[in-house]
Design goal:
alpha/beta; 2 domains; two-stranded parallel ribbon
Length: about 120
């Protein structure tokens, strides 16, 4: 995480190293030039059987200002549900209701179907 001289001063750090420090700026902190790049990386998660795994925000999209999202090499096996990207609450509840219905209709057994999903945005 890049630190400003003000950050280092607050930490009582006397020997600032140039490549550790970014310049303090009075300009808009939300411009790309004045803030560190934000990433969200979701890698190599596995859900099995009838598991529910949510690796994302539900409701408010708290990732909307993230510069780069990588969703890669995640596996959902059997009747499991894996959510790896932000969804609104209504969509998530509908998905969970559908999952519950499908598990109940199958008698609660597990399937051998294996899915490998990947998604990557620059």
């Amino acid at each position: 995480m890049p630190l400003t001289y003000g950050d280092l001063k607050a930490l009582n750090y006397k020997d600032a190293v140039d490549d550790t420090v970014v310049e303090d700026s009075d300009s808009n902190p939300d411009t790309l030039e004045n803030r560190a790049m934000m990433e969200r990386i979701i890698l190599r998660n596995t859900s099995r059987h009838q598991a529910l795994q949510i690796n994302a925000a539900v409701g408010e999209d708290i990732w909307e200002k993230i510069d780069r999202i990588v969703i890669k090499d995640n596996v959902a096996e059997g009747q499991s549900v894996q959510i790896n990207h932000a969804n609104n609450l209504e969509t998530t509840l509908k998905l969970l209701d559908f999952h519950t219905t499908m598990v109940a209709a199958s008698g609660g057994g597990t399937s051998t179907t294996r899915r490998h999903d990947s998604f990557n945005t620059p």
